[in-house]
Write a structure and sequence with these properties.
Elements lengths: L1 H34 L9 H4 L16 E3 L50 E5 L6 E5 L9 E6 L7 H6 L2 H7 L2 E5 L11 H17 L2 E11 L1 H12 L6 E5 L23 E6 L3 H5 L1 H10 L3 E6 L8 H25 L3 H13 L2
């Protein structure tokens, strides 16, 4: 009996202690809320899914606009070639994307920054790389690109200006990396490596067709383009040499190739009364004997190279001849003899 009384007393004391503690804690929390102006009210429904609008982007003059974090479009496996032409006249700054978006917003309605266009500096390289992107290009299509061959003391962004009008008319990408011109007497291999690495990376980052990449060189840049196209024929669909050709500082490094699969079409424009025509005559004869597709045009005044219609004719020739040459080479490789030669060649490639 005595033990029963002790148990009841102990239970009563425990219940009293717990009740008292809860009241004290509740009062403490309420006091803290009141002292800190604590507010437990929920936002109204309009605030729950609010999206912050991006600030308006002011217009800027048509100068080189660095584009940090340029989006890298992802292309489908089979992308149709772009048709028609689009125009781009003003350098567009990279738009500011929306900062806040509702988690319930469907993916196809999430706001993203549009593609940069005009003359931009592509980020992510040790040296400056400049690219002219056509206005409103689409990531589900592929476009042609012209790489401008570097020349000594030539600025990359200035080189792009030479083809800006053509790019706007034809909706092209134009690429010009920083010039790492070799010292007199040195080989251009370091420059080759830099140019090709940038070219391959840009083709992967933007919707550019690997089969429609062309090389254009002017004056000393034309000589470098002539050397580069012979040494790396798989990198370009066609090449245009304006003002100069194969005769120059890198002539000793040029080794012609007899196989059509290792050749590239050349468009050559030389001044009629200049010495470049005579200096390159021996090269013309050698390339013709090897079977290289050549198209020679002579001009009287240097100003003719700046005419937009002339530039358009150069591009149209490269586009048509480059694609037809590739198709004919691919067809010839389907024959028994072509397959045999390709198999032997691949066998000995290290």
């Amino acid at each position: 009996m005595e033990n029963f009384r002790k148990s009841v007393s102990f239970l009563f004391f425990g219940v009293f202690f717990i009740t008292f503690s809860m009241n004290v804690c509740a009062e403490t929390v309420e006091e803290k809320k009141a002292s800190a102006n604590y507010d437990e009210t929920f936002p109204v429904s309009e605030e729950t899914g609010a999206v912050e609008e991006a600030p308006a982007v002011p217009q800027i003059p048509a100068e080189v606009q660095p584009a940090q974090g340029i989006p890298s479009p992802v292309l489908p496996a089979s992308s149709p070639e772009v048709k028609g032409s689009q125009a781009s006249g003003v350098v567009q700054p990279l738009p500011v994307a929306s900062k806040v978006a509702s988690r319930e917003l469907p993916e196809d309605q999430v706001f993203t920054a549009s593609n940069p266009s005009g003359l931009v500096e592509v980020s992510g390289y040790k040296y400056p790389v400049f690219l002219f992107a056509p206005k409103d290009y689409k990531s589900d299509r592929t476009y042609a690109m012209i790489m401008i061959a570097p020349a000594e003391a030539a600025k990359a962004e200035k080189q792009i200006e030479y083809l800006t009008g053509l790019a706007e008319r034809k909706s092209l990408f134009i690429l010009a990396p920083y010039v790492l011109w070799p010292k007199e007497g040195d080989t251009p291999y370091r420059l080759d490596e830099w140019i090709l690495s940038v070219k391959r990376d840009v083709v992967e980052r933007f919707p550019i067709s690997k089969k429609r990449v062309y090389l254009v060189g002017k004056d000393l840049g034309a000589h470098y383009a002539a050397y580069m196209a012979i040494k790396y024929p798989k990198e370009f669909a066609a090449v245009a040499l304006l003002g100069e050709a194969w005769d120059g500082p890198f002539s000793q490094l040029i080794q012609l190739r007899p196989d059509a699969a290792d050749q590239v079409p050349f468009y050559i424009a030389l001044k009629a009364d200049g010495d470049a025509r005579s200096r390159n005559q021996a090269w013309f004869d050698k390339l013709q004997q090897k079977g290289y597709p050549l198209h020679l045009v002579e001009y009287k005044k240097s100003e003719e190279l700046d005419d937009l219609e002339f530039k358009k004719s150069v591009y149209d020739w490269m586009e048509a001849t480059g694609q037809s040459w590739e198709a004919s080479v691919a067809q010839s490789q389907q024959t028994w003899k072509g397959k045999f030669k390709k198999g032997v060649k691949d066998f000995f490639v290290v």
